[in-house]
């Protein structure tokens, strides 16, 4: 599997969870929000470990990677701060949604394509496998 394809799947999952939190309320909203936060935090840990260091170490992607790291930290703060039971939740979650779309756009259209340019698919598959295993591990230790 190409790295970008895997990444798109991860982003899609996160997107759907946030949409669910926005479209529901009460207990369902809290549950969806919690799931979204868990998913995002794991995604961030994987990116910080496997994606951003690669990006920072490669000239053509250095700036995008530094910018992505800043956005990740901003997002992490919002995950901690947002309260799904607060009346202003929808407003702030929509703001987060816009920020996330921007971030995803940059990763999918700039960072990853530039990094994976010329990398053979079997090598990309190995990286994807490593990330899938790391995700499994993170999910188990998050429980
Ligand atoms: Fe990211
Ligand atoms: Fe990402």
* Beta-strand content bin: under 5%
Number of helices: 5
| Sequence of secondary-structure elements | HHHHH
Major β-sheet profile: none
Rg from Cα: 16 Å
Q: Termini distance?
A: 28 Å
Query: What ligands can be seen in this structure?
Result: fe (ii) ion
Number of E strands? 0
Chart the SSEs and their pairings:
Layout: H1 3-23, H2 26-56, H3 62-81, H4 89-116, H5 121-142
Bound molecules: fe (ii) ion (2 copies).
Task: Provide an overview of this structure.
- With 143 residues, the protein is mainly alpha-helical.
- The protein has one domain (3-142).
- The chain contains five helices and no strands.
- It has helices at 3-23, 26-56, 62-81, 89-116, 121-142.
- Helix 2 (26-56) packs antiparallel against helix 3 and helix 2 packs across helix 5.
- The longest helix has 31 residues, at 26-56.
- The two termini are 28 Å apart.
- Bound molecules: fe (ii) ion (2 copies).
């Amino acid at each position: 599997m190409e790295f970008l394809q895997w990444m798109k799947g991860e982003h899609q999952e996160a997107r759907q969870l946030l949409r669910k939190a926005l479209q529901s309320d009460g207990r369902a909203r809290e549950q969806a929000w919690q799931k979204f936060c868990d998913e995002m935090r794991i995604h961030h840990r994987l990116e910080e470990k496997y994606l951003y260091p690669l990006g920072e170490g490669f000239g053509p992607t250095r700036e995008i990677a530094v910018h992505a790291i800043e956005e990740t930290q901003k997002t992490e703060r919002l995950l901690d701060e947002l309260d799904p039971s607060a009346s202003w939740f929808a407003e702030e979650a929509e703001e987060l949604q816009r920020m996330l779309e921007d971030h995803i756009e940059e990763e999918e259209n700039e960072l990853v394509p530039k990094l994976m340019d010329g990398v053979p698919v079997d090598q990309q598959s190995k990286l994807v496998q490593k990330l899938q295993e790391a995700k499994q591990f993170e999910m188990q230790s998050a429980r």
